[in-house]
Amino acid sequence: MKRKTGLKRITLALLVVSLAVLAALPALAAGTVRMSSTIGPIDAGIVPALVEAYGKKTGTKVTFEGAGTGATLEKAKTGNFDIVMVHARSLEDQFIADGFGVDRRDIMYNDFVILGPDSDPAGIKGMKSAPAALTRIAIMGSPFVTRGDMSGTHVKELEVWGAAHIKPEGDWYVTYSLGKLGNAATTTFANRRQAYVLMDRATYLTMKNSIRLVPLVEKDPILLNLIAVIRVNPAKFQGLNADAAVAFADWLESEEAQLIIKEFGVKKYGEPLFFPNSRSWNAKHGK
After folding, report:
1. pLDDT tens, position by position, 87-127
2. Cα–Cα distance for residue pair 221/201, rounded to 1 Å
3. What is the DSSP string of 111-175?
């Protein structure tokens, strides 16, 4: 009789433990944010820095995968991510218009520069207009490397070519076959070829000691690089961690996160890699 009672107690205890574990699983899942991000901010280190700070503050785990913005948005269309970080407004707007994304928020920005060899065979150094510089590169037939992968960087490059009213083609216009690996890989390839390339400033700053390419054209307003987050539409997919994604997006806009962005890389590289750009930051500090 005592043996049966003991077995019943053990069985009951195991059942209670099992139920407790099962009850905890949704809560654990709800606390994880899955982010698909453009590669540049990951390679530069700002995404890992923000994710680490948020995890320490909230206990929430944010996982992230990198791809070009076009591929990032395509991946998000599977419903396997809660939020995206991207930097190609035309692709972002289409993603939202197609019902896949909601709640776009500006988070940070930097800019693009046109890099090239110090010898500058096309003679573009110091030009104030990026479209005019690309026009000169095309006329001279100087080697130019493109990612060619519909990433945010490639989309920006095409925007500048469009402003120049030029469709780039010819032996001088080289598509990097592994452009999908990101800006760092593309810059390394352009450096080997001693070719011109349009690249974000953060990539240049993190690589400048290991490459011979130098900034030749910069600070044209068309080269502005806006980086935003967009939540994947929870009405489109089941199982998204919508509340956790909202909380993460809210924090990215906060003073705490914006200060991390403002100060990131300054001590190491001598200047910011990114600049704060949330609505609340701009309202308080100006843009």
Report:
1. 999 999 999 999 999 999 999 999 999 999 999 999 999 99
2. 14
3. EEEEEE-TT-TT--TT-S-HHHHHHHHHHHT--EEE--S--HHHHHHHHHHHHTT----STTEEE
Beta strands in the chain (DSSP E): 32-38, 61-67, 83-86, 101-116, 144-146, 173-175, 196-200, 214-217, 224-232, 275-276
For the chain, give me the number of helices (H) and strands (E)?
Answer: 13, 10
For residues 213 and 64, give the distance between their C-alpha atoms in angstroms, rounded to a whole number: 30
Burial of 68 (0-12, 13-18, 19+ CB in 10 A): buried
Three-state DSSP class for 100?
A: coil
Asked if the domains at 11-110+226-285 and 111-224 fall in one CATH topology, the answer is yes
Q: What is the pTM of this model?
A: 0.86
Residues whose CB is less than 8 angstroms from the CB of residue 260 and which lie 6 or more positions away in sequence, other chains included: 46, 49, 50, 53
What pLDDT, on the 0 to 100 scale, is given for residue 89? 96
The domain limits of the chain are 11-110+226-285, 111-224
Query: Residue 241: which pLDDT band, with cuts at 50, 70 and 90?
Result: very high
Fold of the domain built from segment(s) 111-224: D-Maltodextrin-Binding Protein; domain 2 (3.40.190)
Query: What topology is assigned to 11-110+226-285 in CATH?
Result: D-Maltodextrin-Binding Protein; domain 2 (3.40.190)
